[in-house]
Structure formats: structure tokens, C-alpha cells
Amino acid sequence: MSRTSGSRFEAVRRRLLPWLLPVTVLLAWELSSRSGWLSTRVLPEPLAVVKAFWSLLLSGEMAQHVATSTGRALAGFAIGGGLGLLLGLATGSWRAAETLLDSTLQMVRNIPTLALIPLVILWFGIEESAKLFLVSLGVFFPVYINTFHGIRSVDKGLIEMARSYGLSGWALYRHVILPGALPSILVGVRFSLGFMWVILIVAETISAQAGIGYMTMNAREFLQTDVVLVGILLYALLGKLADVLAKGLERWWLRWNPAYQVAK
């Protein structure tokens, strides 16, 4: 086998290997359902789930629910992630801001987001603002903590070297401190993009009239297990898509960093 063929085979193997376990699980699930080991009321066969997926897709119902959930998730991420980034930059850059804000934020961080649902309903009712608040609060802390840690973990020797070359003030912050903190900030962004779907699952059970969570809860009432599984798989696919997006942002914004450069 030539070197070129060997490298192509290795590239294909690396791309297919991550899918080995999911495909194996699907095959075992299909065989168990067809042999009667799994009750269709407990876990319908994959083919039934695919049929339900296709039916919802053709009817347009799925597109409506996915668009609604995606809008909620992105709006909550923009609000919570934006505030987390700003406050993380502030507390990481200025000791006075850390002294004033960080202790309070750390106490709030230890309150489970989902435990606030009764209070959130009292504050916001069952409107969209309640769902946005929960998602925003859920994504706030991963971005905040990683931004704070990223700013504080920038190499002090690198900062001193930049100052010796005449950089100071905003120029030092923009060209040295922010790039040095960016890997940690993007870790928080990546975690938050996945976590926002976890929070949204519960948020959409608060008397929603549309969204994947509404579709799933409505299907549960009518014992449509296949549609429930479609909803769960949609959350998984959207979460994976968000993770791929975050990894793409890492490769683009950190293309100067050898650790994030793709080997050729």
C-alpha cells in the first residue's frame, strides 16, 4: 500500500471510528425491539422513530418547534453569555470589581438553576421571559468563570515582555491579555452552548405553546413514545451542532495557537 493510500485510509478510519459505538447501539436496539426483548411502549424500534421523525418533518410541525426552541436558546445564550463575558472581564481585570462582585456571584452560582423555577414563575409568570431568564442564568456562569480564569491565568512574563516593547493600556489588553485568555473563554462558550439545551428542556415545560419541549410533553400525554424519542434526539442533534460550531470558532479564532492548528 502506498503512503498516499495509507494516509487516506487513516483519515477515513479516524472519521468513521467515532460512529462505531452509536451504530452498534442502534443495531442492538433494533434487534432487541424486533425480537420482543424490548416493549414498544417502553422503547419503540428505531424504524418507528424514523417514521415519526419523517412524518413530523413533512407536516412542518418539526420545523416550527425547532425554530422556536432555537430562537429561545440563542436569545438566552446571547443575554447570559454576554453578561458573563462582560462581568468575567471586569472581575478578572480589576481587583476592585472582583472584591465587589465575585463573592456574590459565587453564592448565586451554587443555587441550582432548576430550583428557581417556582420563584421564576412568580416573577415572570409563564411567558417567554421566564424561559429566557432560566436559559440566561444557566449559561451565565460557565462563561463568567472561564473568562475570569482566562484573564487571571495569562502569563505574567508575557505581559512584562509586552510592556518592555512599549505596549500599555488598551493596546496591551487587546493584543496580549485578551488573546491569552481566549482559549479559556472559548471553553466556557463551548460548555454553555451545550448546557443551554439542557436548561431549555425544562424551561419549555413551563406552559409552552411551541418548542421541542412542548412537542415532547404533548406526545407524552398521548403515550406517543416514538415522538418523545424524536424530541430527545432533536435536543441531542442540536447540542452536537452547537458543539461543532464551538469547535469551529476555536479553530478559527485560535488559528495562531499551535495547539489548535489542524495537522496537514
What features would you describe in this structure?
There is one protein chain. With 264 residues, the protein is mostly helical. Helix content is 79%, strand content 0%. The chain has 11 helices and no strands. It has helices at 3-16, 20-35, 46-59, 61-93, 95-109, 117-124, 128-152, 156-164, 169-203, 212-221, 225-253. Helix 3 packs across helix 11 (225-253), helix 4 runs antiparallel to helix 9 (169-203) and helix 9 (169-203) runs antiparallel to helix 11. It is flat, with a radius of gyration of 23 Å. It starts with a helix and ends in an 11-residue tail after the last helix.
Number of helices: 11
Provide mean pLDDT, rounded.
82
Specify the biggest β-sheet. Answer: none
- Share of residues in helices: over 70%
**What is the distance, rounded to the nearest whole angstrom, between the alpha carbons of the first and last residues?**
20 Å
Shape: flat
Strands, total number? 0
Helix- and strand-based class? mainly alpha
Q: How much of the polypeptide forms β-strand, as a percent range?
A: under 5%
Q: Low-confidence runs (pLDDT<50, min 5 residues)? A: none
- SSE string, helix = H, strand = E? HHHHHHHHHHH
Q: What's the Cα radius of gyration?
A: 23 Å
Describe the structure concisely for a colleague.
The protein has 264 residues and is an all-alpha fold. Helices cover 79% and strands 0% of the residues. It has 11 helices and no strands.
